[in-house]
Design a protein that fits this description.
about 425 residues, mainly beta, Immunoglobulin-like, Pectate Lyase C-like, about 5% helix, disordered N terminus
């Protein structure tokens, strides 16, 4: 009898343990109060204000400060957030075998107004995060000097002009190394709320960054004049000059004083009335290069490669591996190269991917000999042609108009498929 009672007690204890185990199985740690998205270097941010919920079988049992002794936490420094250096930071919290991570970023400067922005711009390098819209009050705009390396994180906010712009100028003049990004542009196609726009408030007294009809009456005002290295990762960059004869561009890449390099990895470069990107290749020794790896570039012409000199050879290069280059005009150019007299002998165009909406045209202007050095190995095109006599340069891609005139029939074939022409090696 004693053995039976002992066995019964053991079985009951086991059942209680199983039941307790079922009740106390932690299925999730859920972040309750998280850090802000951005902090500045050196900010002192106690971690005990941030909490996680212990969730058991779908029911929140308790909230714990992430400094709770029962938690195993990595990524903190003496009980505070790690703000010792710039970059993405990760906190990992573990409780009874279940983990959750919390991310935040540390920047060199968090700016709330133009005065704070100007202070940040005096430093040679740094990640500058917008915490509000910035209205640029100086008529000469923002200048990134030679030797400076900066990243503008738009963080869903706008940078715009407010000056009465009566002469040629730019919202941003980059002579250094500038990167532009927007955390709200998740798809990297300009669909977030971050914006850089060349908008004149005159004669307006206020501005609406979402109103494409906000007037901009003046001439030769670029959104960005680039004389250094400009990289666009995400965000929307616009020029809203409405005058049809205005030499005003979203990005004017100018190689007169240094190599001018533009790299588009994402975002949207948009002009509703003129060309989006101009390659003003005005040097025989300084390289003017635009690389499009992603994002959207659109305007009456997406990219215009211009040799402005009347004689000599000027250096220019276009590389496209992805993204969209789009003309918003009927019968407009997605890309067009043109010379005012300089030779195309040092002009190189390489296209291996991307989508081109509108014509792709080469060898505009005079002289037409020599032509550009062109190689197309991939991409989607409406129509590709040259005004000059070019040797076959198309080795791949999908075309709406038969490109056979520019394909070497001995090495490559052109096949029709679903209303398109596909070029491939034999």
């Amino acid at each position: 009898m004693k053995k039976i009672l002992t066995l019964a007690v053991m079985l009951l204890s086991a059942l209680v343990m199983v039941a307790c185990g079922e009740v106390n199985d932690i299925t999730e740690l859920k972040v309750n109060k998280a850090p802000d998205a951005y902090y500045a270097v050196g900010d002192v941010v106690p971690a005990d204000q941030f909490t996680v919920d212990v969730v058991v079988n779908g029911i929140v049992q308790q909230a714990k400060s992430i400094n709770d002794a029962a938690l195993t936490v990595t990524g903190l420094v003496n009980g505070n957030l790690d703000t010792s250096s710039v970059g993405k930071k990760t906190i990992t919290i573990t409780y009874e075998g279940v983990s959750v991570t919390i991310n935040y970023h540390v920047a060199d400067f968090l700016v709330h107004n133009y005065n704070e922005f100007k202070t940040a711009m005096t430093q040679e390098q740094g990640l500058i995060v917008l915490m509000d819209d910035i209205v640029v009050e100086d008529s000469n705009g923002i200048v990134v000097p030679v030797g400076h390396t900066k990243t503008f994180e738009l963080n869903g906010h706008a940078i715009v002009f407010t000056a009465n712009l009566t002469g040629a100028t730019a919202l941003i003049t980059n002579r250094g190394n500038l990167t532009i990004q927007d955390a709200t542009d998740i798809n990297k196609d300009g669909s977030g709320t971050g914006l850089i726009a060349n908008i004149a408030l005159n004669p307006d007294t206020d501005w609406d960054p979402n109103d494409p009809n906000d007037p901009f009456p003046t001439y030769a005002n670029n959104t960005i004049t680039n004389l250094g290295v400009l990289t666009v990762e995400s965000g929307r960059i616009e020029n809203r000059t409405t005058a049809s004869n205005a030499a005003a561009y979203v990005i004017d890449n100018n190689s007169g004083t240094a190599d001018a390099l533009v790299i588009i990895n994402g975002g949207k470069i948009a002009h509703g009335y003129n060309f989006a990107i101009r390659q003003f290749a005005n040097s025989a020794t300084k390289l003017n290069k635009v690389t499009v790896n992603g994002g959207i570039v659109e305007g009456t012409r997406a990219v215009w490669l211009q040799l402005p000199g009347s004689t000599g050879i000027q250096k220019a290069e276009l590389v496209v591996t992805g993204g969209v280059m789009k003309s918003i005009s009927e019968n407009g150019f997605a890309f067009y190269s043109y010379t005012f007299g300089a030779s195309f002998a040092d002009t190189k165009i390489t296209i291996s991917g991307g989508t081109f909406v509108g014509y792709v045209g080469f060898t505009g202007g005079q002289p037409k000999n020599p032509t550009e050095t062109v190689e197309i190995t991939g991409g989607n095109f409406d129509d590709v042609f040259s005004y000059g006599a070019m040797t076959p340069f198309i080795k791949g891609g999908v075309f709406k108009v038969d490109p056979s005139d520019y394909v070497n029939s001995a090495t490559h074939s052109v096949a029709q498929s679903n209303g398109t022409f596909v070029v491939s090696a034999k």
